[in-house]
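Much of what follows relies on a compact textual record of a protein's fold. The record below shows the convention in full:
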Amino acid sequence: MRRHSVAVILAAALPLCGFGSCSKTSKPDIPKVVYVTVEKPVAPPAVLTQLCPITRAQGRSVEQVVSAYNANILSLQQCNNQLGEIRQLGGK
């Protein structure tokens, strides 16, 4: 009878192990090559980062103040054009 009880225990334990699949381990698939995109910041051209000139009135006469004002308007337009070109570099 003792042999019979051992056989019953073994018969009950085999399905719990999946008929031997417990001892088998499967390794996960690991990729061999991994590609990573690295972005490298690039400085804008020096022409676009030049300082814009500032014109100051030499005196306080109306002509000199208006002349300096008009020169500064041109300088601001130049700076706005440079900034627009810099923005376009980022939007490629």
User: Anything to note?
Assistant: The mean pLDDT is 82. Residues 44-92 form one domain. DSSP finds two helices and no strands in the chain.
